[in-house]
Task: inverse folding
């Protein structure tokens, strides 16, 4: 296997194709311009400065560009950086794709697809299963490629599917304990709840919000998709089954201030909201702990009210778990 | 013209067909049952007690029933009430309809329809005008019949159209002052913003929320209607024009806690929200002041944070204005 | 098996020993006194009025008394009530105990004890296992007898243990999915988190808060118990293991306004809080739905922000589940 | 007409008298001092650095100074800046005044004065009209010269009068639609509501809060002015008319947290608050949109809860409107 | 000394002149009207029912009337009540005054006046002392007669002066400990802070808010008084001393939501706010504890966030303290 | 007496042993590293830059190091700084201790100890006096050495005792005015309330939170200490006296969001909370005012909701008061 960006050690030179994840033009006090660049590939990210830049360079080496970099890994103030020897933009016909330069979820896409399909088989209600299958098919490519968010959690390639799958596993445990739960409705809700993100976000690399994401949002976007699908499938637009499913996705943020137009009013909607929130929290906390030394606290985690979490000195379970980002 | 309920004076007897707007079974301390009934017709409401009731009577004379009442208007503790001589349920074949017994908005439906249509002519954008005309036609009967709410404001027959029209008049004044406003978008937003109430509410009489009203809400319900209409009309589902219109209706409550999944992000969406809120406030305050003596404060108005409003001693403008409810 | 209070039908007469769960002295408009009594045994509760009461009767038949009632079940305004023929207080030597007259959790105490012990075996850390075993033994009788609360959720005999056990089952599912979790710490936290309620509450019948419950609260009460136990067991009072366990119980309400002096700062503390909250919510929602007709909404559930929950028309899973209260 | 600061193009040299709107002393990494200066005249602002400064220079070229600058306009990182050749402070006897160097409201002061006076004529109540005329006369010069705020909105010369006038126009539209409104009271409230800013702020150039502005605030400052005027005019200090007018100005911020000691308790006070808030919002949003490219979002607008607003791709109305700042 | 209302025992008959503190017309289930009356004199309050009332009786025996009652004290459900034999309205020429029938503060008015005057002597600043003396003289009668509030705390005759004096004592202790405090300013603030209540409230008996109280409020009312006094005294209206004093009274509620238009921005203003709040809290808590049995909790105290306070079993200090209400 | 850091004037050279209170590695634009150092001794702090640093230097001259500095005091942009000639780390055997380099409270430790002991003598209840004496003895050294906080207030050596003593003085004044207060309980609460800070903080120099401070907090830490002491002293663990004392310390932050697991439910607990908060506020405001010029506002004080406080032009009392930090 080819060496990737993070496989190089201090002092080693390399020639790699990388994505510019972020590019900012700055100037020194004596008015020289330079670019602060964040390079990434699927192994992670390192920063580097491009000195004596021109305004032209800033336009050429912009955020989201794919470049071939000839350089060296160095240590600077305890953090790695790249000393750039030369750099050129890779052309569209050279066969590279942005999504190659993004970190991926810790499980393989075909495996996730297969396991999610097993849950689909357990959705017994005909309205819900037809809509779930229709939309899974319609958005298949994006659904298994997109992240679940821009930065907070599961912001990796395949993160949307990984988040969905992890929630389905939680849902199974809870439905086993609480037999009063409608398992079909809960599974259908898990699968669809964030699928609107394929319309809300621009994709897995250099992820941004689309105008529809900003002005409609993924809760209503998937609700619209459900209605349009129901019309295509000639389902009864006024049926209670359809209403329950719409309510699941529309209420899953659980609080008005997070953009839910309605609060959960079904036992299964309440569970969907809680599983969603729990899975995101576990991901964000784990990710922060994995970047923290034992016996110390993480940086404040913004998605968790700015709390810092403590990594105990004796911490075997976390040690043995796979790295998220 | 026939005398209606509020046309009778103390001591006068009558024989009238009325709606039971509210019916509650209570019992005296010595365990006799009686019904507390709120009677109404299009002139207003009066309360009356039906003594020595049975459980059967409670089922017969339930909320929403139409009854013929033989009785007398009395004064009791400073408030009018009905002394019931006899009462019978009116059959479905006697030609009465619930909506006859409800108060109506202070302007005539044909007049409102005509004036609203004038505003439709000023919507110049082809996407918006086609959707507005399509939905106005689809929901024509309900739109001019329904109230704008269950109780807070414009809770009268035709209240939805009256609220819409009053907002359009405000919108015109503001668009004249602020020339930077897209008048077409603002008018289209005014007309559609509350149209989802035809799906959220059960109708003008004995108004309740539908399950879809409770679990989806009129903001998303009209958004769904816009999308389904666009599909029927074969409009581009991804166009910016369609997005702007959806954003107008989805953000018009202006705050997350009032069920807007998105906050206004267009100048016109901000104005739509403010006009909506202002028109509702003016209605609620005016209605309360009209039931308050000069030189005193109203009861706390719940929709206005429980504030009491003062009716000045010298108050000609209010005196001369038409009565709302 | 003997017939209990709820086993009688309308019109049937009975002679039963019952607990007075609540007693209130009221007076009729013509100044006659009467007692409004809530009777209960382990099958449930029915209300009845004791007419022509004296102040002496009010003192005799007070909340928490055990009485022998000779009476008849009647229907009144659609709800059952007891017509009292005669009633006498049962003496302390007649062998009755308050806790007999309280509803019990839906699982048997020996079964729950056995299953909880299985989880104790999976706590591998020596500090945590010693403290858990010490306190489970010290409070054994109360822990399996007390409710988990005064009224909100699990307000039944054995409710504390049932809530604990249900949480352990949820914890197992989550620890299986999230391998980074320290399973021992999470289980120890689940078992101890609400054990302070044996000091906070007065017991399973006519449950009230103790002064220590009001002025210290069960979070700090169990923390104090842990420290005193550690001193008794001659454990290191400054060890990190002890600190982590204290943090688990002190932070488990998850929000300052619910009385947590600290917010969760461990991944396991975050999970403990969420499992606790989730199990209480599922219980409260399920209990409300079980008292609601299909196709309608529950009364507002206070512990869930006053939300009403909808019971779908087709609701097999809930139909088939055991009744909670 | 003379060329002003923003009339020069890149590379052009000039000799202009300008105001230093902001001056900050900084130092380079090798400990050389320099001044970062914001220059302005009535055409707008440009930034420039004054290199090799001394502490003496910092004192000389301080915020609010008027200077003659000999320099050249340059392009730097996509934004204009001034390269300073030489600079000297203009003496007090050279006939310059700070207010010359400030941007002005988009309407002419005499026009605004004339239009406002037309509204004064419609105030029919003798108490209100006398106080309005007295205070308009007393503060005439400042009222038509001051901005309406330090930075949020209408922060231009004449902004206070422009904001007042724009509100009067809105008020007229609303009073036409809602005939129950006391037009005299509403107009009087519009004219006086922000007049206290002539005491709260230091003036149109380099605007700061006065101690009285910080410690009393413009709502109470104008209320005090009304009382002192009433005493001077020998009006009845206890009349209801005077009370209503005081309530209008004291409640116009509409929320306690914005410094209103009382919430609106008059229909007209409610409208005054809403018109004030609406006019400020329209100004701030329009100003932000005018600095934003089509098809993109503005920067977060702090006065609007940090929301970003979208400027549609097709945006004729905004294009054709006059520029605010 | 004459026996007062609370000096009579159960079963004793009396003939007394009393105030009707509250009068409400109710009706029995069989539609007989009766009045529920709260009688009071300076010893306290007892309730009584006036049976078979007419609408005329309700108008005659209204809230705030002075009546001669011939009746008997009885015990009813553990609480005293009056059985009314006969009752007549006392004429204006019979020499009674409402304020005779109100409870008084626990210290004598002349004593309080003398002690407050000692504090006035310690106000050394000429502006503050002249205004304090002017307003103390202008409002002398009301200031020592009015309560400090309608119901929350110090709602007794002379309560305003008692609250003021108690705060001055606290202020002295704090100024002794914190020598950085401007004692003159703090004392002047204490004396004036609530003096606006003489305009906000109707008086010591049957206390209501005036329209000016509702629409301007006592903070701004005293600020206006200070300005008018300054004008009368020909003081400099723009002096910093005057500004500091105005800020003291305007900010003394300490929070916007309690109607302070400005938050404290002086050390002395911060202290004034805290002393005011503390004295009110001590009064309300003490009053509630004095009506509570040892070893139990008070009813929720609304002014203290609805908290219940505990009265310890061993509670000598409270036992020995004077009763407040 | 030896000259200390702040005793030197601009241009004077010195050779002093100082603590590095804060050390940060930065780099110039041309990639040279330097250290920004905050030096302190008991007279205060001055900043200095260490140029041409290496990563090794950063490790050597880290936060909390004691160093001998040969340098010169200079003026730079109006603020003092140190020009460093040479610098070396002082060895552990040279007899210096971190706490020598920290500012101290403005009163002497022996004086404070003596005065606090006088208050201890006034605690008459045997349970409270035994626990107070036991814990004062156990933590004697730390209690008179530690600060009361990391930065907000009393962040000086001996600050904890100074804060405690100042509160006792306030408590005395209030207990004199309010005779209903249990003086013993209030004094015991004052002395113990913050004693948990000896476990929460690391000490007087370079103060940090301990893990127990972060995860348990000083309220519960002192509660645990009280319980362990009671066990050692063989006091009744269930006594009401013990419960009252625990409640005092557990509720003293007065609000849930400040980490109180219970809100004050005793009159004395309410007073303790208010005295604590008041003393901290007076300290923080005074400290800020002492660093502010007359006639201007302080920087926003974070602990006081970000308010700025005004220092009046005529401000004798503050002038004459001792400097806090």
Result:
């Amino acid at each position: 296997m080819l060496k990737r960006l993070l496989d190089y050690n201090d002092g080693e030179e390399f020639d790699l194709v990388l994505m510019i994840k972020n590019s900012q033009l700055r100037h020194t006090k004596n008015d020289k311009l330079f670019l602060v660049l964040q390079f990434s590939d699927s192994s992670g990210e390192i920063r580097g400065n491009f000195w004596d830049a021109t305004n032209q360079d800033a336009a050429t080496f912009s955020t989201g560009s794919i470049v071939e970099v000839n350089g060296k890994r160095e240590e600077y103030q305890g953090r790695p950086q790249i000393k750039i020897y030369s750099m050129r933009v890779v052309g569209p016909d050279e066969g590279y794709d942005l999504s190659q330069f993004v970190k991926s979820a810790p499980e393989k896409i075909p495996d996730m697809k297969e396991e999610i399909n097993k849950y689909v088989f357990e959705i017994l209600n005909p309205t819900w299963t037809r809509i779930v299958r229709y939309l899974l098919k319609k958005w298949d490519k994006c659904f298994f490629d997109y992240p679940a968010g821009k930065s907070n959690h599961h912001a990796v390639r395949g993160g949307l599917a990984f988040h969905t799958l992890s929630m389905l596993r939680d849902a199974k445990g809870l439905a086993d304990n609480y037999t009063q739960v409608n398992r079909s409705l809960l599974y259908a809700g898990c699968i669809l709840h964030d699928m609107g993100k394929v319309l809300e976000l621009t994709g897995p690399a250099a992820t941004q919000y689309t105008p529809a994401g900003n002005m409609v949002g993924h809760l209503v976007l998937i609700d619209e998709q459900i209605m349009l699908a129901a019309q295509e499938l000639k389902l009864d637009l006024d049926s209670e089954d359809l209403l329950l499913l719409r309510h699941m996705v529309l209420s899953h943020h659980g609080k008005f201030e997070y953009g839910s137009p309605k609060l959960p009013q079904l036992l299964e909607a309440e569970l969907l909201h809680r599983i969603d929130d729990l899975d995101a929290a576990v991901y964000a906390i784990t990710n922060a702990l994995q970047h923290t030394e034992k016996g110390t606290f993480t940086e404040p985690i913004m998605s968790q009210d700015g709390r810092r979490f403590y990594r105990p000195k004796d911490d075997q379970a976390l040690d043995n778990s796979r790295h998220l980002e």
Chain B has a mean pLDDT of 91. Chain B has two domains: 5-101, 109-284. Chain B touches chain E through nine residues (CB under 8 Å).
